[in-house]
């Protein structure tokens, strides 16, 4: 006899004390370990909330640039609404967030806007300022 020929035709053992594990739970045993990602329902929820980054056309980028220059040249500080993309640190995609505030300065070295509150917004991730792009799409 070679290999498992002596036991290959024996009946499969089924425990009397322990119920059989579901296929999903058995598969989870072989999934990568991620202790800090939370419960499996929470993982599904975060995967569903991840979005792809939208690419703005060159025309939209120019509109945003002109509008941003106009805001910066204004003599009086004013509240500005930004919509920008925040990449997810663990997987592909991310989420769009909105932040409002007065611009303190534009940091050209780090390529970001610094608000009066100290919050920073990367210039390359901005997709809309005060609804300008949304208004341009409606025309």
How would you describe the overall organization of this protein?
This is YolD-like protein. It comes from Coprococcus comes. There is one protein chain. The protein is an alpha+beta fold and 139 residues long. The protein has four helices and six strands; from the N terminus they run αααββββββα. It has a domain at 58-138: SH3 type barrels (Roll), CATH 2.30.30. The chain has helices at residues 23-29, 40-49, 58-73, 132-138; strands spanning 80-87, 94-101, 103-107, 112-115, 120-122, 126-129.
CATH topology of the domain at 58-138: SH3 type barrels
- Note the run of SSEs as H and E: HHHEEEEEEH
Largest sheet: 3 strands, antiparallel
Q: What is the overall silhouette?
A: rod-shaped
User: Any idea what the CATH architecture of the domain at 58-138 is?
Assistant: Roll
Please report the total strand number as a whole number. 6
Q: Helical residue percent? A: 25-40%
CATH class of the domain at 58-138: Mainly Beta
Which parts are unreliable, with pLDDT below 50 for 5 consecutive residues or more?
none
From the structure provided, what is the oligomeric state, counting identical versus distinct chains? single chain
Q: Could you give the distance between the termini?
A: 81 Å
């Amino acid at each position: 006899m070679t290999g498992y020929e002596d036991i290959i035709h024996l009946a499969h053992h089924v425990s009397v004390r322990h119920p059989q594990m579901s296929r999903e739970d058995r598969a989870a045993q072989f999934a990568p370990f991620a202790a800090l990602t939370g419960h499996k329902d929470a993982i599904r929820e975060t995967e569903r909330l991840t979005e792809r980054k939208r690419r703005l056309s060159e025309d939209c980028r120019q509109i945003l640039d002109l509008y941003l220059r106009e805001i910066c040249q204004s003599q009086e500080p004013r509240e500005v609404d930004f919509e920008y993309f925040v990449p997810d640190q663990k997987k592909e995609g991310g989420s769009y967030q909105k932040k409002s505030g007065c611009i303190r300065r534009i940091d050209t070295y780090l390529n970001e806007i610094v608000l009066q509150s100290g919050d920073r917004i990367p210039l390359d991730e901005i997709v809309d300022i005060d609804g300008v792009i949304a208004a341009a799409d409606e025309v």
